[in-house]
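This part of the workshop introduces the protein records we will be handling. A record pairs a protein's sequence with a compact description of its fold. Comparing a sequence with its tokens is the quickest way to learn the format. The record below serves as our worked example for the rest of this section:
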Amino acid sequence: MIALKMLWISILAILILNAAHAVSITSFSINDNASYTNSPLLNLSINAAASEMRFSCDGTNWSAWEAYASSKRFTLDTSYGCTLSDGNKVVYIEVRAFDGNALASDSIIFDSKGPSKPSAPTPVLENGIAKISWSASSDSSGIGKYVLRIKEYGKETKEFSISISGNETSYQHPAKERHRYCYSLMAYDNAGNSSQYSDEQCIVTSTTGPDVNIAVFDANMQKRDFNGVSYFRNEMVFIKVFVKDELKDINGYILQGSEKNMLNFSKAQDGYIASYILKPVDGLASVHVSVTDYLDLNKSSHAEFFVDSTAPDLNIVLAKQKSETQLLLKAIVSGDTTKLYIDVLGQRYLFETQVSDKDKGFEALLDLNNVQELLKINVTAFDRAENTKSIALEKFFLLKPTAKIKDVEVLADSLKSKLDFAKELAIFTQPELTASLADARALIEGAKHDIESQEYEPAREKLEKIKATLELISSRIANVAPVKKYEIDYNAEKAVFYSELSGYFREIPMQTKELWDSLAIKREVTVFEIQVAEKLNYAAVVSISIKNSSAKKLAPFWIVELIPKTIAGDFSMLRSNTVLEHRPRSNIVDIPIKALMPDEMVAVRYTSTLMSQQEYEKFKIEMAEFYLPVPVKEKGTEVAFVHTYERPNLAPLAIAILAVAFAYIFYRRAKK
């Protein structure tokens, strides 16, 4: 029973396997489903489930069986029932396996003859476009495309082809100027057969010689054109021939008088160029040029110009300063003068004049900048041919007088500031220099008046005297510069300093307390170096700045100051920017302070005697020497200047007490 079941299962498996491998043809095509062919050799594509295959053209005469493949190169052959004449061709395929056969077929039109010869194309030139047309060719399989052969003749000969759809009978392409184009056609049918080339038809894009423009330039490539005529001297000129097209040949010559000189042209960016050195033969000259293009079309042209080798006349009549920055120049020049260059210390001014038949006057008003008092002027006249004549002259001018006045005024102000600074610091005064400075300022005002009246020569003389005076003052004036500086801001720790201030009184006056609360006081002690010529001195300047930091006006009051002996020395030599009322037999002074508005500040300064270099090296000052400046309401208020004592160092005393205590303890123990 089990053996019977196994037999049935084996039979069923074999039936299923045979069903899965049943013979069939999924697809069969010739030349990838092409409609036409011009070759008896065909490419067959097969998709089938089989082990062998064979082929036929009539279904009767077959090729031998061969192993199955997905592609086959099959040649139309009579042995397979195929005919070699043009027309529709059917190819049959049969496949087989052990369980059966399958059959399929496909067809293609065989065309071995080319299309008819196309008619000669007809080219027409319109606005630089060649329009080509032709009659359609004929073929049994239809026209697939045309190939238009174009031959281009210019400087070089080129040939190229254009593929055009078989449905078209016309074509357009840009045609270059001065070229010859020849066209012929070949037709291809849908089977890939080609016709003969048609007869060739040609056109030319130009019928006259190329346009020629001639220009003559100088070495700077200027035409020197005056009313349509160019002028040159005996110099090198450049002849440019402007053409848009390539030339096959160019030649030319220059005619001066009866002398003819040939030119040698070379290619340039926008045409052709030749150079030539003109001879000093004054009069009309001409250049003649002939050109030939690659169509062998010719054109000639010429241009005329004048040669002039005689320099113009030039005479300077006047050179005068007219304002602070203006110079008036007058001259007489010959009638053929076209321009004048005026060079003034590196600056060049150009003036153009109209050509006339006789001598003419010239006048120019120049604006001068950044020039010196010795003015160097060079005037050059140019005629139409760039011949020149130059005249050079020198003259003293007061240039930029306003700026010079400003310079001496600035210097005078600077010197006055130095004198005022030394005076304000209460160092010393220099009355003789102050008087000389006043004289210089009077001369400055006189020079200003001269300049306003356009009297520049006396103004220049005054400025020279002013400069000499100010230079003398500069050599003798004191130059003051700080070398050391000390500061105390009593407002920074107001409560601490107030504690010290309280120590100056048995009971601090209420008005002093109110003043102290309302004021911001700062002390500066500065040591200045004082240089006069080659002499060097030093002085210490004490400055007390007092500012009303309250919101109300303060009535006049006094500052009581104890001046250290280091500064005071001899009170008769003490200098100050205010009144110092010295109290007899002391170093105390009373200094009056005016009423102060809110935020208003005054500075009180007094200065030590002058010190030499050696004295300065020995000079030492400590800020501890200065006591607080004491604001009081009444002059002569008693102030007992004492410093707040520093806390003593108790460490040595503590050590001594401990030593005595230990000694006593040891002594008591010893007695026991």
Notes: The longest helix spans residues 401-424. The mean pLDDT is 87.
